[in-house]
Each structure stands twice: as structure tokens, then as C-alpha cells.
Amino acid sequence: MSYTVPEPKIFACEQSTVLAEKIAESFGADLGRVTFSKYSDGEFQPSFEESIRGSRIFIIGSTHPGTENLMEMLLMLDAAKRASARHITAVLPYFGWARQDRKDKPRVPIGAKLVAKLLETAGATRIITMDLHADQIQGFFEKPVDHLFASTIFLPYLESLKLDNLTIASPDMGGSKRAYAYSKFLESDVVICYKQRKKANVIDHMELIGDVEGKNVVLVDDMVDTAGTLTTAADLMIERGAISVRAITTHALLSGNAYERIEDSKLEELIVTDSIPLRKESPKVKVLTCANLFADVMQRVHQNTSISSKFLM
Length: 313
Hints:
Blueprint: E1 9-12, H1 17-27, E2 34-38, E3 44-48, E4 56-60, H2 67-82, E5 87-92, H3 111-122, E6 126-130, E7 145-148, H4 151-161, E8 166-170, H5 176-186, E9 189-199, E10 202-209, E11 216-224, H6 228-239, E12 244-252, H7 258-264, E13 269-273, E14 285-288, H8 291-303
Parallel strand pairs: 1-4, 4-5, 5-6, 6-7, 8-9, 8-11, 11-12, 12-13, 13-14
Antiparallel strand pairs: 2-3, 9-10
Helix pairs in contact: 1-8, 2-3
């Protein structure tokens, strides 16, 4: 008797439903049916409202704080495992807790490693994510990880701007590798910002390494949280003679008074993806969807074909 491989099914965590609907539409499928029962104390329970036995399923959900977003994904994975799904792929447009990728002082956790183990224990047999805060997080998993780069989304947009005297900038030393990769593709110059912090999210001092006079500068980073680094860098570059400063950041956390900082800064625009739902709209924030990228890679994973063309850098 021949066995027909069932069509893949796509499900969404509640906080990523809008993006999941875009991904499913690009994929050419409907979102699967899931309900969430909620108790008055905040506890919730997901339930798949259709059979997934023997199926390849994709569960889409970013795991940005608060913790309920991660817990949602873990419960969905566990439910899928117990419902006998054949392959369970956790699609994490944003992999949260990734800034805790090492012990940077005594007696602290390695949160990214813990989250990786939780996802695997809950039932994930594969991970698809985008622009991890640190590339080495892939090594925290024992299951296959497809680490996508938002450069495949951002580079066509940057090219469409046709900026003269383009210079790519990294807002800190840690992002220099990413900045050099963009500059190599765009054949542009690179400058680096050197910053010192008093504590998390608080910049004590920033210096600019390189010349930006007469240049159109594009800052490149993987995430923007309070926007303190990007706005300080943009203001510094305008002071040093830059014509314009833009920023591209994959994950728009935009917490605290980030929106106010951006709108009051010298940034021309902040270009982000929809990996995380925005709290509100801003005239300076432009959103490019990552739905087509994820849908394409999910199709290739299902068909067991190469995804290497999705790695521009």
C-alpha cells in the first residue's frame, strides 16, 4: 500500500496571527484552526481543532517578552507532539531572550540556551528563525536550525533608494561583521560607532570611527529596543557632516519611549520587518514584511530542496 505524504499545515500563536496569515497566504494555504481557552488567573490552553496526526506542521510565533509569548509556543509544540504530528517546525520570526547568549558576569543564566532546550523538549523537530542576536545560538540546538537573514528583504529596498555616497554604519563594535557584509554587497564604505554603557539600555559615551561628511549613512542592526543607540548614533553622524542617516533593524522591539526618541532624532527613517507586531505606527518607521521569505523557506523545507539562495550573507 502506497503512502501519500499529507500537505503541510500552518498554525499561529495568538500574538503572531497577523504575520502568520500573510505567511499562509504567500505559502498558498489556509491557517489551521486553533482555539485558546483562558482562565481568569491568566492561564491559557491551546487546542488544535483539526487532526494533525502524521502531518508536517509549522507553528508560527515570535517569542519576544512577555513570557506568555514563549509559553504559547511551548504549549503549542507540546500539544502537537502529543497529537502525533510527524514533523513539528517552530517558526520564530524573532527568537526572544537571545541577548543572554553567554555569561557576561558571574551568577547569571544563559537564557538563549535555556530557551533552545525548552523548544526542543516541548517537541520542535526543526527551527526556522531570522537574524539571531548572535550566530552561535544555532549551536545551542541539537535539532536543525534554518537561520535566515533579513538582508534578502532590506537590500532590494536600499538599492531602490539610489542613494549617492552611501556609507554603511554599525552602531556598535559587535555589529561590525553585519555592516561589512552589507557594504561588500553594496560596494560602499563602512564606519563603526564605539559605545560604552553604564548599564543595559543606557549609553555613557559614543565615538565614531570613520568619516561620514557628505555621506548618506545607513545604520545596520539586528534589533532596536529603546532606540537609544540608533538615535545617539544618528545625531552624532549629522553633527559630523552626514547628509542623511537611516537605520535598518530586523526586529522592532521599540520599548519604553523608543517612538518618541525616534521621532525627535535626526533619523530620516527606521526600516524594520514585521517579525514583531508594532505597538503603534510612526511616520518615521517603515515596515517591510518578512512573510514571503518565511513562506518560501517553509515550502523548500517541505519539499526537501535547498534554501541556500536565501543567504545573501
